[in-house]
């Protein structure tokens, strides 16, 4: 009887481990900057870009600068003060994902031309859109997060102007909470991790999607500039 109970307990434990492993299995999309099907717009890119057509472009397969796997070059220009452009890549809907980790390497040659750089994950499911919007607010030297109700909010986490001609790495962690809210967990900038721990309500949406996004904001004089992204990765579970 004891032996039978031990065998039964071992089977239950194995099944529970398998269930937990499957439940928490993560999906990882790598080298997203190499994928086809990126979309972009400037009129949808916030206060600076809204209503204005800002010259912008994306070029894939760049051999310099690169960390070894070829980068993608993003460019903005024109003459509209604080002009901006937004790019995004749809990755296919995922209604079960609640946790997200967004990794990006980026490079600037003229960081003084940038007002801000925005890195986002967007999930739409169940009639709600969860905007995990973040930006390195270079002009204000702080990291910002997005709230659908109040827009950009300073976190108090420093985001100094990036060094020119140098690769930078950021890791962003987000969560769609059990109560269906947007939670900003943390940001890691070049190995230095900072916890955000802020929760905001989602907005309404009639679509089903999961995407990553990148936005470039220009300065007051709208100096043309480029940004290079590489190793763009989204892990979700």
Low-confidence stretches: 9-23
Q: Assess the beta-strand content as a share of residues.
A: over 45%
Top-tier CATH class: Mainly Beta
Number of discrete domains: 1
Order of helices and strands: HEEHEEEEEEEEEEEEEE
Report the strand count: 16
Chain-averaged pLDDT: 91
Helical residues, percent: 10-25%
Summarize the structure in words.
The chain has 2 helices and 16 strands. A hairpin with an 8-residue loop joins strand 3 (56-62) and strand 4 (71-76). By secondary structure, the chain is mainly beta. The protein starts with a helix and ends with a strand. Strands 1, 3, 4, 6, 11, 12, 13 and 16 form an 8-stranded antiparallel sheet that branches. Strands 2, 5, 7, 8, 9, 10, 14 and 15 form an 8-stranded antiparallel sheet that branches. The protein has a single domain (27-236), classed as Jelly Rolls. Keywords: Signal.
Notable characteristics:
2 helices, Jelly Rolls, eight-stranded antiparallel beta sheet, 237 residues, mainly beta, signal
Please write out the topology:
Layout: H1 2-23, E1 27-29, E2 39-41, H2 46-49, E3 56-62, E4 71-76, E5 84-90, E6 99-108, E7 114-125, E8 128-137, E9 142-147, E10 151-158, E11 166-176, E12 182-189, E13 192-200, E14 203-204, E15 209-218, E16 225-236
Antiparallel strand pairs: 1-16, 2-5, 3-4, 4-16, 5-15, 6-11, 6-16, 7-8, 7-15, 8-9, 8-14, 9-10, 11-12, 12-13
Give the structure's gist in a few sentences.
The protein is mostly beta strands and 237 residues long. It has helices at residues 2-23, 46-49; strands spanning 27-29, 39-41, 56-62, 71-76, 84-90, 99-108, 114-125, 128-137, 142-147, 151-158, 166-176, 182-189, 192-200, 203-204, 209-218, 225-236.
């Amino acid at each position: 009887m004891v032996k039978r109970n031990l065998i039964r307990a071992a089977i239950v434990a194995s099944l529970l481990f398998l269930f937990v492993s499957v439940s928490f299995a993560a999906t990882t999309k790598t080298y997203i900057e190499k994928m086809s099907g990126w979309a972009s717009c400037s009129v949808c890119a916030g206060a600076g870009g809204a209503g204005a057509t800002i010259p912008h472009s994306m070029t894939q397969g760049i051999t310099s600068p690169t960390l070894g796997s070829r980068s993608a070059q993003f460019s903005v220009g024109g003459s509209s003060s604080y002009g901006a452009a937004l790019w995004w890549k749809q990755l296919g809907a995922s209604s079960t994902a609640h946790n997200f980790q967004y990794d990006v390497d980026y490079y600037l040659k003229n960081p003084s031309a940038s007002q801000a750089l925005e890195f986002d994950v967007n999930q739409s499911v169940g009639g709600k859109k969860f905007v995990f919007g973040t930006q390195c607010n270079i002009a204000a030297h702080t990291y910002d997060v997005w709230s659908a109700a109040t827009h950009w909010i300073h976190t108090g986490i420093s985001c100094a102007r990036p060094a020119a001609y140098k690769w930078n790495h950021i890791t962003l962690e987000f969560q769609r909470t059990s109560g269906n809210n947007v939670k900003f967990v943390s940001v890691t900038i070049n190995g230095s991790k900072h916890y955000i721990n802020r929760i905001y309500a989602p907005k309404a949406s009639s679509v089903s999607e999961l995407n990553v996004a990148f936005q470039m904001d220009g300065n007051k004089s709208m100096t043309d500039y480029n940004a290079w992204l590489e190793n763009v990765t989204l892990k979700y579970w």
